[in-house]
Amino acid sequence: MGVPLPPSLDLYPAQPGAGLVEVLSARARLVPFNLAATVVFLLAVLHTFMAQRFMRLAHRIQERRDAQARAAGREPAASIRAELMHFVGEVEVVFGLWAVVLVAVIVAFYDWPTAVHYLDGGVNFTEALFVVVIMALASSRPVLALAERALAQVAAVGGATPAAWWLTILTLAPLLGSLITEPAAMTIGALLLVRQFYALRPSPRLGYATLGALFVNISVGGTLTHFAAPPVIMVARPWAWDTPFMLSRFGGKAVLGILLVNALTFLVFHRELRGLQSSAAERPRPSAALAPVPGWVVAVNLGFMGFTVVNAHHPPLLVAGFLFFLGFAQATAAHQGSVDLKAPLLVGFFLASLVVHGGLQGWWIAPILAKLTAVPLFLGAGVLTAFNDNALVTYLATLVPGLSEAGRYAIVAGAVAGGGLTVIANAPNPAGQSILSPCFEGGIVPLGLLAGASLPTLVFAAVFMLWQ
């Protein structure tokens, strides 16, 4: 059996009074592998910011290859080099590529059994598996049609205009996440935004502002219960946080923050939102709405979603339930449409690869959290979340001994407030990125998402810090 990875935090000697740099230096000297694993992780993060450049390079290579083929009188063919550039430019596969490098680093520092032991026993892939299943279920036509009809009733109060749909989706979909989990809410919200908003081709500024609001609102909207938001799930059992606690400490702030974010964003873009027009082919009309689905089919699909949520931490039951769903979907194909597995599988691969890297970052994140007081903890958790899945940040907080109640609140509040700043900040974000990327020319640019999420993040920061 290989060496246990990640190294237990108990392995590092206590250093009372030592500065953060001194603590991290001592840990890096004690376990040199720590530094190597973090360098690989940081390179993967940088790669995500470079992904769009690889995509543009792939297009240029293919266009040049096609031009050369036409000039020679041949039929254009796919360029292997262009396909490779396209592959390394896919955000969903970036961390998987660098996970291969990480495994090589583990083997170089230790041996192959250690790498196998880490991947097989040191990493928990349950969350990634859950996201694959719930995303596929939430994107099924019966569930989406039901959500669209329900939200249409609310949007009708505002005349079912694009602005009314925009407000309805950005308000209710995130709050729905507290019941059906954030990944499912992200899937439904993103798909409805594609149909009711992005189909109208808004300006890039409004497009990214909407993207940022969706990501941040979803990150916070799941905090009304203890079982829906990944960063809350990580602390619920160790800290004995149940749904009544979440409602009292986070519920009102989450609702207020979502309303403020949407109101401020609407004020900034009210002219464009009110002026959005579309052609007959683009504008969603009742005839273009999703076809009605028999109630019993919708009920069965919802039953599969409920079963998945209840058994979210039991992989064998998740797989068994999903296989039964695929059989049911095949039997009722006339009402289900095709079940899209490509996007859920890519998102699951992204999250699985992310936890492979993230599981080895505790050696530097835990000391940072332990050194900070309440307000710096809030800010630190928000910043760390932008570079790590916020569930990892809150999980590591449970390992910090003697953390005060104020410190616990600050970490979770900071983690969910910063959950929309990057694609890797919150587990549901890759699902939204996968669905909405085609709505942006050249795909979603990381700096565009960061800019769009900045205002919502600041709003929630003010709400969480001023209302305690």
Summarize this, please?
With 468 residues, the protein is mainly α. The protein is 72% helix and 0% strand.
SSE-based structural type: mainly alpha
Mean pLDDT: 88
| Amino- and carboxy-terminal Cα gap | 48 Å
Instruction: Give a quick account of the main beta sheet: strands, pairing sense, barrel closure.
Output: none
Number of strands: 0
Report on the structure:
With 468 residues, this protein is mostly helical. It folds into two domains: 9-122, no CATH class; 127-466, no CATH class. It has 22 helices and no strands.
Can you tag this structure with a few keywords?
468 residues, mainly alpha, 72% helix, 0% strand
Chart the SSEs and their pairings.
Elements: H1 20-30, H2 33-71, H3 80-88, H4 91-109, H5 112-122, H6 126-138, H7 141-155, H8 162-180, H9 182-196, H10 204-221, H11 230-236, H12 243-275, H13 295-310, H14 315-331, H15 333-336, H16 342-358, H17 362-371, H18 374-387, H19 390-397, H20 405-417, H21 429-436, H22 446-466
Helix pairs in contact: 1-17, 2-3, 2-4, 4-5, 4-16, 6-9, 6-13, 6-14, 6-16, 7-8, 8-9, 8-10, 8-12, 9-10, 9-21, 10-12, 10-22, 11-19, 12-22, 13-14, 16-21, 18-19, 18-20, 19-20, 20-22
